[in-house]
Amino acid sequence: MVLLAGNVVPYIPAERRARAVAACVAHLVPGGLLVAGFRLRPGWPTPDDHDRWCAAAGAAPVDRFATWERAPYDGGDYLVAVHRRDQGTAAT
User: Fold this and answer.
1) Closest Cα to residue 45, out of 69, 24, 15, 25?
2) Which residue from 28, 44, 67, 83 could staple onto 54, CB 3.0 to 4.6 Å apart?
């Protein structure tokens, strides 16, 4: 598992975010989890941005939560996203 807690993704310069997510996915064994929690603010990554970067790196969405306690995500201002590295997929 790779855990990105505390707004790690939004604090990465915008032009490097996709590469940073891909580097995290590359550290996972097939079936491993990438878990990222971050605030949703104007100009910061959206859930769909993060899903797209994960997919490009070979990780599929598993779940989304609104809190670290796993409250259901309903479009609020905080996201905990869980992605699983595809079985047998080489991350880029």
Assistant:
1) 15
2) 83
Q: What is the pTM of this model?
A: 0.91
Q: Are 46 and 14 in contact (CB under 8 A)?
A: no
SS (H, E, C) 2-69: EEECCCHHHHCCHHHHHHHHHHHHHCCCCCCEEEEEEECCCCCCCHHHHHHHHHHHCEEEEEEECCCC
Q: pLDDT below 50 — which residues of the chain?
A: 91-92
Domains and CATH numbers, the chain: 2-85 (3.40.50.150)
